[in-house]
Structure prediction request, 101 residues.
Amino acid sequence: MHSYREDLRLFRDRRFTLLFAARTASVLGGASAPVALAFGVLGLPGTTATTLSVVLVGQAVPQMAFMLVGGVLADRLSRYRVMSPVNCSARRRTCCSRSCW
Prediction:
């Protein structure tokens, strides 16, 4: 039988706890951004579902392009050199988009 107490011992390591907290905040922030965007766009006067779809397509197209470029960079550089700047820029982007609404 598996003991979950063994798994919880990971949180004694400060580095793991910081990583877990950072990833949790990042995932929650990234998951709430599309919902906030939808409410923000639909809250504007005169907008419809078509307007929201245009905004979402405008978000998805650059995201696909950056994913392709990011995949190429991830193949050529170390994980740390790719993920550190990406997480920092995602945090800035999320903060800026939330402050605009």
